[in-house]
Amino acid sequence: MIPTSPVLGTENQSPYQVDSRKEIILLLRSLQENKQLINMIIHDGNEVIITAILKVDDDNNNIIFDCASTESANQRLIEAPRVYFEAALNKIGIQFSSSSVSRCNFMGSPSLCCTIPSSLIRLQRREYYRINTPHTHPLICVVNVPEENGGGKINLPLVDISCGGVAMLDDQRVLNVDFGTLYNDCKIDLPGIGLVNITLQVRNSQNLLLMNHKTSRRIGFQFIDLSKTMMAQIQKLITKIERERNSRQSGMN
Fold it and tell me: Same domain for 116 and 170?
């Protein structure tokens, strides 16, 4: 999953700003060539539409993107006063924005485009490196739903994990996602570690429109009072997942 922040520019990121056009185009083309997914964020971070770069057109000063999966989503992007773009490239976050997304045509198909940004943010956060969890054998978190929200337990798949927290998908939008909401006595069965009891706190949420036309909600949680021993075990798990993934990718090359 792509690393996300509530809104680009809400923190002091000037040390990470890239102003060289040559370097900006190189980074954008790397996103294109590696087929990295791009988050297009509108409505103050409340809506995320996932796309990919089709072409970086240096001659015409344009980036061409795949359309959203619905016409209404395309229209919302075009009408938005500003669209924020976020992606990940080799563990580094790439962020930029545009005040004008428009329709265009690429190889006979409707597409979206915006001008190549004059600057972007290249941001590497090392404190809690997140890694996407496996899709083939997804990790599941059992979340206790408070009585005021209907009670009971629900199983949600993890999107990513770090020593600082997890992100999950709540397709049915059951959970209260108000910032700071606590979920106590949650359980995750982690490979090589076993069943872990954790307390989770909501830090952010975003509605997603996926490329397969489905909608979902991504919720970012922070671990509360996680022991140093458990943090070390989670770090080992992250390293193991990354090693196995790199090994598979090397085998395919």
Answer: no
Q: Which spans in the chain are helix H?
A: 21-33, 71-79, 228-252
Residue with tokens 């076993």: 194
* pLDDT-derived band at 249, boundaries 50, 70, 90: low
Half-sphere exposure of 51 (CA within 13 A, CB side): 25
Looking at the whole model, is its pTM more than 0.85?
no
Q: Are 154 and 239 found together in one domain?
A: yes
Give the DSSP letter string of 171-215.
TT--S---TT-EEEEEEEEETTTEEEEEEEEEEEEEEEE-TTS-E
By three-state DSSP, how is residue 65 classified?
strand
pLDDT at 21 over 60: yes
25-39 pLDDT tens trace: 999 999 999 989 898
Residue of 198, 201, 186 whose CA lies nearest to 226: 198
Domain boundary among 70, 100, 123: 123
Sorting pLDDT into bands at 50, 70 and 90, what band is 235? confident
Q: In which domain, by residue range, is 175 found? A: 131-247
**9 found inside a domain:** no
Q: Are residues 141 and 156 in contact, defined by beta-carbon separation less than 8 angstroms? A: yes
Pair 78, 56 in one domain? yes
